[in-house]
Amino acid sequence: MNIETILVPYEEKTVLYNLIQLYRYDSSEFDGHVLNNHGLYLYKYLDHQWTDEYRRPFIVQVDGQIAGFVLMILDVPKEYTKLSSSEKTHVVSDFFIMRKYRRKGVGRKVAYSLFEQFTGTWEIRQTLANKPAYAFWKQVISQYKPNNSYQEKILQDEKWNGPVFVFEI
Hints:
The protein is of the alpha+beta class.
């Protein structure tokens, strides 16, 4: 299985938008997102993926087929993180692997590839209700950073409601 993360050029914005629709549908049971009057899920940061210098949108492909996406925020200053105290932190904004490719190691391989590509401090968070995402990230991070060499905390305040992992690479 050949797994790739490919930076999405602006000209392919529609592909990412379509994948975000699947992602929002898939996660709506956890985050409460609802359809607008046109039958679509809104995602207010879509254009920001190409206008904000610190954002990186990736499409995930498996054997040349679209399998998901990852939206990254690189080198976020500490005033924008939830738990990290580092001057600059990488954040996984959104992470989506289509159901067809889940439980086959695709998400883990994508995460590991991104960890190795962008070294430094990482902060990964999930909403409290999204138990499958928590289980996925807990397993991925604990396997990548054995011996509990990461920090984990559940935050419940006005800024965030859910688990947060912080670790160094």
